[in-house]
Design brief:
This protein is of the alpha/beta class and about 325 residues long. It has helices at about 15-30, 75-90, 105-110, 125-130, 135-150, 150-155, 160-175, 180-185, 205-220, 220-230, 245-255, 260-285, 300-310; strands spanning about 5-10, 30-35, 60, 95-100, 190-200, 285-290. Helix 1 crosses helix 13 (about 300-310) and helix 5 packs across helix 7. The longest helix has 25 residues, at about 260-285.
Length: about 325
């Protein structure tokens, strides 16, 4: 059976994925699926750096603005909805382009990770979620993970409560370390004729872009956006409000820290997040790095490299490259 095409264009936060993905989609007849854990939520535009309808240049986008902030979203839901979108894209004769920085989401689709065996019993997860609401909860959860799966504890930051809980739950329900499970899943052959591009640039340049993006978010109304969400009843126990930028501004609005401290934390933690993203992508197999400096930051050159690679892989055999 001929494998169907799948293009992945990812990279760390603020590296410039959106602009390049639009150009790529227009060139190869693609539709973009957002692999982002925050852009699925309505009313969360500024803090998630969400592409708006008037910026999409006619390119169909999927998995953006599909949930309310109080609804649950996780890798299992993403995988299910992403596969549904891909079927529609294939039926239209187009190529799905998975774009976003959540590496685990990408891996779940690319490698067809099976979550069904260990997602039905949510009792333990709810216990962990309740513990996470304590002031020292995230620290305790991370210490629990350190005991049962040190490799995962090193890879997952204590503040990433959702992934810490996922790793602990996986161990509780299966008796297997999720780090070992992920290693096995990475070794699986993909069901797709895929090309996995990672956009990258020097760390100092990336960090400067992150600083600029956070400043722009504040100018664009990040504080007002979080205030509106709080007025709608959103609170820190919600997965959506644990996102970078949201939890810090919420702490400011609650009078726990100053705005200056909140901005410092957002910038610092976003830099740390970008570093962890790059670490994840380096562990993935068959990644094709697109170093922006090597192409003199010229989108036309990067696009030519990507389309040539897709042609060589047979992904564009029936498309205009």
């Amino acid at each position: 059976m001929t494998k169907r095409p799948l293009v992945i264009l990812t990279g760390p936060t603020a590296v410039g994925k959106t602009a390049l993905s639009l150009q790529l989609a227009k060139q190869i007849g693609g539709e973009i699926i957002s692999a982002d854990s925050m852009q699925v939520y309505r009313h969360m535009d500024v803090g998630s750096a969400k592409i708006m309808p008037d910026q999409m240049q006619g390119v169909p986008h999927h998995l953006i603005d599909i949930l309310e902030p109080w609804e649950e979203f996780n890798v299992v839901i993403f995988q299910q909805k992403c596969l549904e979108c891909m079927e529609k894209i294939y039926a239209a004769g187009h190529v799905p382009i998975l774009t976003g920085g959540t590496g685990f989401y990408i891996q779940a689709v690319l490698n067809g990770i099976d979550f069904t065996d260990n997602m039905e019993d949510t009792t333990y997860r709810k216990e962990l979620e309740a513990l996470s609401q304590r002031e020292d909860g995230p620290k305790i959860l991370h210490q629990m993970l350190q005991k049962v799966d040190p490799v995962s504890a090193q890879a997952i930051h204590a503040n990433n409560v959702k992934r810490v809980i996922r790793a602990l739950e996986f161990y509780q329900l299966t008796g297997e370390k999720i780090s070992r499970h992920n290693q096995t899943e990475r070794a699986k052959e993909s069901a797709y004729n895929s090309a996995y591009f990672v956009l990258s640039e020097p760390r100092e340049v990336l960090y400067e872009r992150i600083e600029q993006r956070v400043d722009e978010m504040l100018t664009q109304g990040l504080v007002e956006e979080v205030k509106a969400l709080r007025d709608m009843g959103c609170h820190r126990a919600m997965v959506s409000m644990q996102g970078l930028g949201y939890k810090e501004i919420l702490a400011y609005l609650e009078g726990e820290i100053t705005l200056e401290q909140a901005v410092y934390l957002i910038k610092r933690d976003t830099r740390h997040f970008a570093k962890r993203q790059l670490t994840w992508f380096r562990r993935e197999k068959e990644v094709i790095w697109v170093e922006k400096q090597a192409f003199s930051n010229d989108h036309a050159k990067m696009l030519a490299f990507i389309t040539n690679t897709l042609t060589e892989k047979g992904i564009l055999s029936c498309k205009q490259s």
